[in-house]
Amino acid sequence: MFTGIVEELGEVVAVEDLGDSSRFSLRGPVVTADAKHGDSIAVNGVCLTVVDTADGEFTADVMAETLDRSSLGALSAGSRVNLERPMALGGRLGGHLVQGHVDGTGTIAARTPAEHWELVRIALPAALARYVVEKGSITVDGVSLTVVEAGDDYFTISLIPTTLALTTLGIKQVGDPVNLEVDILAKYVERLLGRGTEDVKDLEEVVEMDR
Q: Nearest to residue 163, comparing CAs of 182, 146, 183?
């Protein structure tokens, strides 16, 4: 489990095509300081398992499902990436509960700079838009952010100087893809409410048959 508070702006060293998957080598001295084989590290919001570490770098295998659902497939050597280690039990929850399970991708539609901050508009699929609410939480490329405005096919976020300087969101351009993870609580609530409606319908059918 992560919090969406990026620890380090890392870099892709190499990407090896394995046919049905890829092996990524990434540089991140901070997140690899205490990392070992089998640990998890979020890369642009995607939870990856560490295969090996050496000299401030780590490798991770990325399966086809992850490449299809996220923007990791668009990365190449030299790409900058947001890195975060899992939250330690008893640590502070600085952002919000982030699983590192990307729901899909959005696209940066517009950037409106102000004197010290920037308003960013992100287009997203309608299937994800229903989980996004004004002043709710959303994870963009692994960064925990608060939604300013939520539309039918977009949302906006405000980026402070620290976020612009220390994450990939400061260098992303209009048209670039971003990984999105919506609030897990919204998905669970929808599932439970849907299940409840089906249970009521099933009960009504049973009662009708007994008459």
A: 146
